[in-house]
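R.M. (postdoc): so does anyone remember the format we settled on? I'll just put the structure tokens first.
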């Protein structure tokens, strides 16, 4: 009996310790980096560039998984409802976590309450592009404005989906110029780009990353960039203010990394630290600037990133209101 009681006592003493001893430190399994836009989009290009060094830094595979649709809301909702165990992160955008809050009448998730901010990944401009082959008459931004004013509603512009930066950049442009151009949404960048090259649409305010490649290859012509300053990657392309006579025009968004709500603080801090090391490295910064036209981030903490997100929810709500854009 004494042996039995001693055995039970020893079992009770060590029972709480055993599970703790079995827990491996994070990360202890593959990590999924989910995006809400198709392969070949600006988001996808950056995701894949980030995944490889992040995998090396964390010592586990980092897999890219794109669940496109509904302006990025499908992927965002999946991550918002996932377990906060550090195995799933979202490559989000100002569209998914700021613009959509006012663009959609209802969202299946709350951009603030249902996300954990990890890192701001840079500011992303758009480029007004046309097919020189299909639309030779639209050789400059002034040509676009003249054509739009001569026949209101005759010109149209593609976007990568309702609420995407490619949509609202066009809406901002039309509002600033006082013109009527028709929005034609597609499900992602490849579809919109194909339509532009085929001549099915007239204009495309494409994100800088994919736009740069098409411009350099001569497949499209860049008429203007939507930032206050010219892009180092496209020094020959003027700003909207310069080319279109619209002083102060500025339309750019951002990329950012998020996790499900409730992510443990140590995982949040570790992920932020590893991402910061990668995106601030000279070679990576050069890739962002020269290859993607992205302005590298100056924000270093999740708290700073959250403050930008909160500010932009309010800022884009006003843009959406003035543009009249709305998605059911």
């Amino acid at each position: 009996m004494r042996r039995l009681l001693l055995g039970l006592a020893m079992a009770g003493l060590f029972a709480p310790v055993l599970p703790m001893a079995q827990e491996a430190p994070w990360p202890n399994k593959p990590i999924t980096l989910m995006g809400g836009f198709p392969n070949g989009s600006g988001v996808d290009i950056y995701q894949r560039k980030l995944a490889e060094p992040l995998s090396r830094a964390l010592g586990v595979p980092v897999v890219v998984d794109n669940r496109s649709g509904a302006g990025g809301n499908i992927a965002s909702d999946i991550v918002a409802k996932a377990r906060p165990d550090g195995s799933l992160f979202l490559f989000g955008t100002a569209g998914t976590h700021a613009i959509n809050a006012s663009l959609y009448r209802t969202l299946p998730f709350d951009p603030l309450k249902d996300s954990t901010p990890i890192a701001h990944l840079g500011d992303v401009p758009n480029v007004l592009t046309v097919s020189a082959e299909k639309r030779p008459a639209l050789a400059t931004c002034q040509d676009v404005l003249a054509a739009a004013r001569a026949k209101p509603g005759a010109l149209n512009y593609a976007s990568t989906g309702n609420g995407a930066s490619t949509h609202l950049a066009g809406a901002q442009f039309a509002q600033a110029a006082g013109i009527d151009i028709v929005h034609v949404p597609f499900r992602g960048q490849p579809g919109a780009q194909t339509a532009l090259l085929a001549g099915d649409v007239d204009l495309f305010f494409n994100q800088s990353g994919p736009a740069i490649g098409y411009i350099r290859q001569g497949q499209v012509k860049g008429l203007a960039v939507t930032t206050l300053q010219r892009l180092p990657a496209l020094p020959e392309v003027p700003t909207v203010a310069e080319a279109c006579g619209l002083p102060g025009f500025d339309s750019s968004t951002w990329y950012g990394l998020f996790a499900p709500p409730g992510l443990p603080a140590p995982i949040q801090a570790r992920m932020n630290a590893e991402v910061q090391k990668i995106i601030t490295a000279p070679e990576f910064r050069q890739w962002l600037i020269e290859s993607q036209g992205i302005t590298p981030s100056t924000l270093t903490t999740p708290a700073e990133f959250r403050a930008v997100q909160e500010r932009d929810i309010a800022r884009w709500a006003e843009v959406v209101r003035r543009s009249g854009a709305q998605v059911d």
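R.M.: ...and that's the designed sequence above, right after the tokens. Also worth knowing: The radius of gyration is 23 Å. Residues 11-22 have pLDDT under 50 and may be disordered.
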